[in-house]
Structure formats: C-alpha cells, structure tokens
C-alpha cells in the first residue's frame, strides 16, 4: 500500500531542472507558490499554468507521477472548491436554497482555488521529484544559516531533518513488515466497523514506536562512537555550488513576476 | 495428499509503474503434508515473496497457489486470503519486533483471539504454547519488553504456535541468536514437526540446518526454482551450489575433503552424526 506514497520519492532523469542548485529550487518553488496568490484573472492563471506545464515537461519525468501527486488530495480540493462555491456571495445568483447559493463570484472563486491547488501541488511535486531528500535538507540548512545570529539551532534542525528524511523509507518498510506480521496473526485491517479498524492500528503503532526508540538509541550511540560532538566546527562533504544556470532560473522567475504584475495592472 | 501446490506462479511488485520489479517467475512446486522443506537461495532470490504468497499476504499476479482445499489466484478476494491465513502460521525474520501487548500471555493469546477463540480458550492455548517453546510460566505476567532478546523471540514464536497452524513457515527463525539459542530453536521446530504432524517450511541461509532437518530442499535463484530434491541430492555437488551462490554445508565439505584422501561414503553423510559414524567405522575396519 505504501508503494503509492509519493513523498520523498526522487526520480532521476538528469534534466536541466534536476541539475539546478537545490537552494535555488527550494526558494523558487516557495516564491512561485507565493506569487500564485497574486494572480486574479483567468489570463494570469492561464499564464501561470502554461509556465508550470513548461517546467513539468522540462523535468522529463513521466506525467503520471504528477497525477499520482494530485490524486490523494483530490477530495480536499473538491471539498474546498465546493464550499467556496456554495458560500460566496456577489454577482449574478444562479441558484439558492437557505444559506446556500451558487453565484457568479462563487463560481469564479471556486475556479481560482482549483487552479491554485493544482499549481501548488504540481510545483511542489516538481521540487520533490527532481531533488534527492538529502539535498533538500542541505538546502534548508544553507538557507537558514543567517538565523544562527538569532540563536536558532540551525545545525540541529538540519541534522534532524536529514535523519528524518533518511528514515522515512526505512520506517515505511518497517511498518509494512509489522503489518504483515500482524496480518499473519489474524489481524484484519480492511474489514469491520470504524472502531474495530482504529483498534487494529494499535498492534502496528506500538511495535513501530518501540523500534523507532531502539533505532534512535542505536543511531545516537553509533554517532557518538564516530566522534560526533554537535554541529559546531564540522566540515561538509556535500558542498552546494551556485552556477550560472541557477541565476538564470531566478531571472526566469523575475520575468514571470513582471508578466504577472503586468497582467494584474492592465486587465 | 499434496498440501501445498504452486501452479505456474508469477509475482510482480508494483506492476504498471516505473518501479515494476519481477520477483517470481513460473514457480511450480509441490510440498507434501507433514514434511520439512527448506528453501535456500541467496539474498534477493525471491524466498520471502514466495512465503508471503503462501500465507495470503500477497496475491500471485499469475498462476495459482493451492493450500489444502483453498486456491488463491490473482482475482481472489481478501476473505479467501484470510481463510488461507488460518491454516498457515508464519514466523518472520526478527519476530520479536511484532510484540505489542502489556503482558507476555496477552501477546501470545492475541493470535488465537483474532481467530475467534474466547478469552479462556486463547489463554489456555497461550499457556500451552509457552510451555512448548520453553518459557517459564512465571514470565506470563511480565511485559514482553522486559525480556531478553532470546526470550522475546520465543514469545513471538509462541504467539504463532498458539494459533495451532497446520503449516508453519519460518523465515530465518534463528538469525541473530547465539549458537545455543539457534540450536534450541531449531530442535524445537524439528520436534514440533514430528509430534504435531506439522508441515514446516524453513527459509534459511544456514545450509547445515537445511541438510540436518529438511526432507526436501528447494533452491531458488533469480525468482525461479532451480532445483528441488532431498538434501543428499542437492548438497552433493559443491560446484553447482557455488554457481548458484550457495554455501556447501561444513559436514559435506569435510566429507568431500576426506573422500579425496581415500575415504568412501555411502550414503553421503549430511549430518555430523552420520559423518562420525561412517568415519569411525572406516577407521576401525582400516586398523584391522
């Protein structure tokens, strides 16, 4: 069942986007998510959609992966869109019943929200599909460096982040193993009332927590034995390098912003 | 009666995705009831997938698996799979990681209770299973997490035995135990197989165990069964074993070294006991 989990799954195709600096990718995808909210017309959304499509195609990753990213969230998207449609007022009223009404603005708002969700999910999927999790952790550490001045424990956060990312697949494997073992002992996860199903999670959760505690203990011992004394004064093995193409990617994003502002001002 | 039958079974992980991986191809295998079968093969040869198919944890993507009267194919329902699981007990690698209850007794009784036994029946079965695996009755009210590694392993095994399976699958049950614990656990399974007429299937990397306990050895390589036969037939060809990335049991290797120096063995010894008997006999007759 975990074969469908997309989180932290990296698909190497060595495209232009793959070779970008992870810091650039991280910052730019966040920036893109922010400017999505500046778009307020269909023209602007069409432009952003086109841009996203170009980015997706240039990753050379199969489109099916992006659909896999959207699929689990489809109900949340529909739920939000429908709520927005039913509770927005203004413009021409097409239908109403009690406090519910479908209005012109409601439809437009619903459409916008749908576009926003789609764009955000696609862009963040681009980030995770093209960047190995450890590089994302490195990028976070590098970007948070300035925060050391205000006493934020950046090394520790980065260490926890990279260990957490490293153990996501291991813990998923472990969960699958424990589930199999409990299924072999007669636990049925797929039938029965909701209460019964919630109860059937206990035989998975407890062994999983215990194995996580043991693992943490062993890992800490192994780290100390190898001379880990904390983040201060350590050198780095993977060194991120900013290239011309990263600057170029930033410039592209500047152009996108200018076009977006232009569309907003003159339409 | 053939208890277990694999009929042209194939299995593919995540079919239709870029992560598709073929684990088993065209497996044909018959295991008679009340026998001891060892499955050997190097890491990644598909042994674990095979036993998960047997226990209904996976459905074959092609072909069918028959256990007793139940046949499972790629379109079988979850209910059929659950029915299969009632006959099959499986001891996974490092089974102590499946313990979760507050007390040892409750944990062992968990399996029988899931099969619909009442609390009293389940606890009775649990007590019985504890005796079977050699756990002291005073441990019943302890938390399983207070126990030593070896004891935890026994609790986990007892939890499987308490479900009274007709077929017992062991996936490297002695991995990580000390030599004495390994021997005790292996002896326990051999005894159980004899006394309770169980069908035991052992997945192992220990060729000595396969040679000593099994009636039938199944050799797997690259997701296919490459050879089945009695241990004597399998372990007599060291070159063939090495070509399939397998070790030769130490007994066999030693007997073969002796053969080069004039000893003659008939039948070829599989266990230390057989080897010593034949060697001492030949030394005595040679001395005369």
TrEMBL record, chain A:
Annotated compartments: Cell membrane
Keyword set includes Cytoplasm: no
GO cellular component, one term: plasma membrane
Membrane topology: Multi-pass membrane protein
Domain of life: Bacteria
Chief location bin: membrane
Transmembrane parts of this sequence: 30-57, 69-87, 117-140, 152-172, 248-266
A Pfam family that the UniProt record links to this protein: CbiQ
GO terms, molecular function: transmembrane transporter activity
Subunit structure, interactors included: Forms a stable energy-coupling factor (ECF) transporter complex composed of 2 membrane-embedded substrate-binding proteins (S component), 2 ATP-binding proteins (A component) and 2 transmembrane proteins (T component).
Function comment: Transmembrane (T) component of an energy-coupling factor (ECF) ABC-transporter complex. Unlike classic ABC transporters this ECF transporter provides the energy necessary to transport a number of different substrates.
Record-given protein name: Energy-coupling factor transporter transmembrane protein EcfT
Organism ancestry: Bacteria, Bacillati, Bacillota, Bacilli, Lactobacillales
Gene that this polypeptide is encoded by: ecfT
TrEMBL record, chain B:
Assembly and binders: Forms a stable energy-coupling factor (ECF) transporter complex composed of 2 membrane-embedded substrate-binding proteins (S component), 2 ATP-binding proteins (A component) and 2 transmembrane proteins (T component).
Pfam family, one: ABC_tran
Protein name, per record: Energy-coupling factor transporter ATP-binding protein EcfA2
Family to which the UniProt record says this protein belongs: Belongs to the ABC transporter superfamily. Energy-coupling factor EcfA family.
GO molecular function: ATP binding; ATP hydrolysis activity; ATPase-coupled transmembrane transporter activity
Membrane topology listed for this record: Peripheral membrane protein
PROSITE patterns: ABC_TRANSPORTER_1 (PS00211), ABC_TRANSPORTER_2 (PS50893)
GO CC terms, sorted: ATP-binding cassette (ABC) transporter complex
Top-rank lineage group of the source organism: Bacteria
Keywords associated with the record: ATP-binding, Cell membrane, Membrane, Nucleotide-binding, Translocase, Transport
């Amino acid at each position: 069942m975990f074969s469908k989990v997309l989180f932290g799954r990296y698909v190497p195709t060595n495209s232009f986007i793959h070779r970008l600096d992870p810091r650039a990718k991280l910052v730019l995808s966040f920036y893109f998510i922010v400017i999505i909210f500046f778009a307020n017309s269909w023209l602007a959304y069409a432009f952003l959609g086109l841009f996203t499509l170009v980015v997706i195609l240039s990753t050379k990753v199969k489109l099916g992966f992006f659909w896999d990213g959207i699929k689990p969230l489809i109900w949340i998207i529909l739920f939000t869109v429908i709520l927005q449609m039913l509770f927005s007022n203004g413009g021409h009223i097409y239908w109403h019943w009690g406090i519910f009404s479908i209005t012109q603005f409601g439809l437009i708002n619903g459409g916008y929200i749908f576009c926003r969700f789609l764009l955000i999910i696609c862009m963040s999927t681009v980030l995770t599909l093209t960047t190995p999790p450890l590089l994302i952790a490195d990028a976070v550490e590098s970007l948070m460096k300035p925060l050391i001045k205000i006493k934020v424990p950046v090394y520790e956060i980065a260490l926890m982040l990279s260990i957490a990312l490293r153990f996501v697949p291991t813990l998923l494997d472990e969960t699958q193993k424990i589930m199999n073992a409990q299924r072999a002992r007669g636990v049925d996860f797929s039938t029965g009332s909701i209460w019964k199903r919630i109860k059937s999670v206990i035989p998975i959760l407890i062994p999983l927590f215990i194995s996580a505690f043991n693992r943490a203990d062993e890992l800490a011992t192994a780290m100390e034995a190898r001379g880990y004394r904390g983040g201060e004064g350590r050198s780095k093995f993977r060194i991120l390098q900013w290239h011309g193409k990263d600057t170029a990617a930033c410039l592209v994003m500047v152009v996108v912003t200018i076009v977006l502002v232009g569309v907003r001002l003159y339409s | 009666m053939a208890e277990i039958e694999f009929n042209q079974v194939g299995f593919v992980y995540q079919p239709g995705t870029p992560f598709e991986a073929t684990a088993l191809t065209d497996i044909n295998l018959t295991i008679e009831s009340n026998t001891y079968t060892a499955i050997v093969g190097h890491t990644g040869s598909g042994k674990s997938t095979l036993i998960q198919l047997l226990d209904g944890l996976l459905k074959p993507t092609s072909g069918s698996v028959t256990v007793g009267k139940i046949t499972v194919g790629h379109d079988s329902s979850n209910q059929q799979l659950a029915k299969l699981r009632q006959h099959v007990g499986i001891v996974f690698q490092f089974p102590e990681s499946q313990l979760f209850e507050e007390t040892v007794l409750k944990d062992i009784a968990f399996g029988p209770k899931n099969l619909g036994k009442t609390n009293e029946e389940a606890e009775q079965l649990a007590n019985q299973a504890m005796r079977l695996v050699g756990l002291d009755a005073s441990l019943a009210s302890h938390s399983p997490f207070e126990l030593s590694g070896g004891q935890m392993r026994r609790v986990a095994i007892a939890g499987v035995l308490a479900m009274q399976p007709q077929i017992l699958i062991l996936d490297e049950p002695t991995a990580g135990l000390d030599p004495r614990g390994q021997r005790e656990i292996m002896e326990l399974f051999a005894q159980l197989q004899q006394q309770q007429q169980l069908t035991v299937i052992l997945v192992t990397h220990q060729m000595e165990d396969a040679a000593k306990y099994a009636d039938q050895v199944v050799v797997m390589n690259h997701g296919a069964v490459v050879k089945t036969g009695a241990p004597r037939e399998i372990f007599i060809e060291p070159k063939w074993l090495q070509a399939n990335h397998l070790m030769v049991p130490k007994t066999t290797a030693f007997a073969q070294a002796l053969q080069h120096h004039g000893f003659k063995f008939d039948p070829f010894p599989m266990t230390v006991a057989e080897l010593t008997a034949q060697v001492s006999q030949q030394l005595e007759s040679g001395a005369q």
